[in-house]
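[job 4471] stage=fold_predict status=RUNNING
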Amino acid sequence: MAIQTFPLRNEYIALCDLLKTLGIAPSGGVGKMMVAEGLVEVDGVLESRKTAKIRPGMVVKVLGEEIHVVAEASAE
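[job 4471] inference complete, writing structure tokens
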């Protein structure tokens, strides 16, 4: 399983947008279909909400990818 880290700039990102941003899904619509088909887990639980709010500390698993969401370090 490939593991990657996603630095989150905001408070949260919608699950379908995360999949699109990382290139796992070519579009938000395809990301929503992936969730609807039961291909996505969040923190070890199958996620059925297409726009679930993904926050720092959460782990998303999809198609052999494991994404660790972290808060982006501020540039101070």
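[job 4471] summary: The mean pLDDT is 93.
[job 4471] exit 0
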